[in-house]
Amino acid sequence: MEIIVLIKQVPDVALNIKVKDGAVVEEGLSYVISSWDETALEAALQITEEVGGEVTLLTVGPEKASESLRKGLAMGAHKAIHVKYDDAKNTDSYVYAKILQKVIYKRNFDLILSGRQSQDTDAGLTAPMLAEFLNLPQVTNIIRFSDISDQKITFYRKGDHATEVLEMNLPGLVTVNDSLNEPRLASMRGIMMA
């Protein structure tokens, strides 16, 4: 199974973030993969370990975003694509989705995975817009997956009143809830290879 995982590099929210004149002070900030996207990466790795295939990471951002790609490769992803884009701070979900569409639309893939939202904006709009632009079925906020085949996959998602069970034909796009799994740590061998 060919899986593309969308990742976004965000400020580490575990640290104290300073704001001055209505803007985040960049000095001293540490950046990490958004925890929601790290959960999506772990899901992709688990799927490929079960049924085979490759995981390709995709990010849009400045040069420093390559750090997050290297971490994802160290966790076990097979390939990475970095769309270098320095105006990320002035970009909204729609523009990100359009950029991602241009990168993805001619590629072969079975599944696109993303976090439900990112830690910096919490908007949760980019992945659903991307699914629309690529004319793909989508399932959002999944908490579990099962019955994986080349043609279909079953997802469990948090609904308003209960857990919903959905079967989706592939290719498709899925956003994951942060309760789906506990992302693995990068191995020393993986870090050295990345």
Task: List its salient traits.
single chain, alpha/beta, 194 residues, eight-stranded mixed beta sheet, globular, 27% helix
Radius of gyration: 16 Å
Strand order of the largest sheet: 7-6-1-8-12-9-10-11
Low-pLDDT regions: none
First CA to last CA: what distance? 22 Å
Mean of pLDDT = 89
Number of strands: 12
Following the backbone from N to C, one meets helices and strands in this order, namely EEEEEHEHEHEHEEEEH
Strand residue content: 25-35%
Largest sheet: 8 strands, mixed
Number of helices in the DSSP assignment: 5
What class would the helix/strand composition place it in? alpha/beta
Helical content class:
25-40%
Overall morphology: globular
Concise overview:
With 194 residues, this protein is an alpha/beta fold.
Write up this protein.
With 194 residues, the protein is α/β, with parallel strands linked by helices. 27% of the residues lie in helices and 32% in strands. The protein has 5 helices and 12 strands. The strands form 3 sheets. Strands 7-6-1-8-12-9-10-11 form an 8-stranded mixed beta sheet, with helices on both faces. It has a two-stranded antiparallel sheet with strand order 2-5. A two-stranded antiparallel ribbon has the order 3-4. Helix 3 packs across helix 4. It is globular.
